[in-house]
Structures are given as structure tokens and as C-alpha cells.
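So, can you check?
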Amino acid sequence: MSHHENWPKAWRSPEPKKRYDAVIVGGGGHGLASAYYLAKEHGMTNIAVLEKGWLGGGNTGRNTTIVRSNYLWDEAAHLYEKSVKLWEGLSQELNYNVMFSQRGVYSLGHTLQDMRDIERRVNANRLNGVDSVVVSTEELSKRIPYLNTSADARYPILGASFQARGGTARHDAVAWGFARAADALGVDIIQNCEVTAIRRDQGRVTGLDTAKGYIETPKVGVVVAGNSSVLAEMAGLRLPLESHPLQAYVSEPIKPVLDTVVMSNAVHGYISQSDKGDLVIGAGIDRYNGYGQRGSYSVIEHTMEAILEMFPVFSRVRMNRQWGGIVDTCPDACPLISKTDVEGLYFNCGWGTGGFKATPGSGWVFAHTLANDQPHELNAAFAINRFISGALIDEHGAAGVAH
């Protein structure tokens, strides 16, 4: 009888070296992807990923796994489309099944203004080479039989946009796949290693104080989601971010009834069904700033109302569990992927609720930025100085229901 006791570890658990050419702070999907592409695309193998807890224990494992690229503005659409293209070959590239399922994403419209906005976004998407179509109410009722398309609904559905190449992926598998692939390229992945200080000398980074001692490095890439402001303060920086708890839910497993993703900004909820039958549900951020991963009852209540407005048939389905992740949001609902005024210090943050879908693309452009000390053309517009120049990328309309 065979057992699994002697299975090889998916990645090593080394002690940190005294010096690295670059250090990524944050062992979530974005951080691991950044390290992987630094090694694979730029030949930097003397690098480390520092994670204060366990890999994928932050927002990577606390989201609703939606992937799409149908954003309005050119800058965002190009960045997210790069990510979707990477998603489409990611399992093969990493030799690890990330369970990317292109089941499509619908964004519902409930008013004439909603439909005008949807048509505008669909046209903008198609000009940017992003697949997107407008779907009528009649077509929706055929494609999603349990969706409440009645004209007597409190918020009648007038149509939707649809991106067929969107879908979902398995969040844990994404972290594990990038971790194993980065480790195989020589990256040191160090868990339970919290950064306590960022050392600087004459305006440039010199190293990090951590729970496992001092680490010397000339380059630090910070990718810590909701804790970005905390790390920035260590370097004397103030970022234009707010951190909020974002809640999600999963139900008891039920038979397959929903083979796509349905979102609605108006009723403020979104839902899909996982491969094992859970209904995966998300909604808005808690209005208060904070780092609690519990969330609040008012958001739970509002979310359930939204889901039942769209799918009355789910009224007797029981929720298994609820949790919160901490998101950092920028004023224009777009991320920061930028070098800073401190030489050798780079930040990748401010994704709000859109972080998971961007995981591979975010890592790809951030690795380029760290390796070359300048942005790739895909993330040049997401520099921190846009809040001084006024060149904002206002994606509130297309960023998702939680912005």
C-alpha cells in the first residue's frame, strides 16, 4: 500500500541568504508571478520572495477567482488583456493545472444608462482587440435559465455585456504553480518571514530587516495587497490608497446549475459555481477602512439580497462560510505598478477588487520594471506620478461591483 509521506516537496524552504540581487515582499499570486518572470524572462535567479505567513494566505486565497479583461480605458484593457492571454497558456507554461475555465462573464444592465455604458464599453473593447458583445434579455433567458429576467423584477434586466474568454481559475493552484516554477528556477521562497523595516541610505534601498534577520539587497519589489500602506510608511512614503475588507461567500455544494459568471453593478453582487458545486458569491467592500478579515453583517445581508434578486431559485441554498480579504484601492480604481522616489524600491498595489484576474500580467510587467528600472509600455500609465500630473485612468464603471 503506497502512501504520500515520501512525496518530494513542491518547493524548498531555505533559510534566507545574507544578500540577494532583488527581493519580492509578498508571497501571494502577484509576488510569486513577479519572481517567476524575473527569473524566466530576465535571468535574475539570486532573488527571494518573503512572505509573513504562508503562500497564498492573503488575498490570493480570499477572492472569487474571476478572470476578465473587458475594461473601458485603453491602458487598463491592454494590461488585463495581456493577463488573459497569459492565463490561456499558464497551466502549460507552469506545468501545473491552475484550472482556468473560460466559461464567460456576463455584466448585467438594468437601466437605459446601464445599457448605454455597456454598449460604449463593448465598442471600446472591440477596438482594443478584446472580445465583447452585447446580449439581449431574451438571449440571457435562454443561456442562463435560472436568472430572473422577468419584466416584473424589482430591477428588470435590459441586457448584458458578455466576454466569452473570461471565466474563473483556482486561486490556490495559481499560487502553488508559480511557487513551484519559481523555485525550480532558483528563487528562494521564504515563509513566516515578516519584513519589519526597509533600510535606506542616501535615497536608495540597502536592505530589509525581517523576522529572520537582516537581508541586504539593492532592489525591493513590494506586492502586499492591503498592507501596502504599512510597507510604504517604512520607507517614508505615503501612497494614495485606502484599505478595506472585501467579503466573499461560498454555499453548500449543489448540482450544476450555473455554468458562467454573472455580475451586476446595480444590484451589487456577482456569482459563479465552482467545479465542486459551491456557489461562489462576492459583493462590495466594507465602507470602513480596516484590516479585519471578518467583514460585517450589513454587507452579508445586502449581498444575499442582491443574489436573490438575480436568482430567486437560490433562496433555500445554505451558505457554508464567509470571509474577508483586505484590498487597497486607488482613487481611480486602477493599480500602481511603479518605481518610487526611493531608488531601488518598487510598488505593485492598489488593485482593489481586480487583483486576481491580473495575476500573471501584473507579475510580467512588474518583473520588467524591476529588472530594467523602468516600466514596460503596458504599465507606464500606472505610475504613482499620475496622481500629480492628473493623468488618471478612471475605471470605476468597469472595475467591478466592489469599487
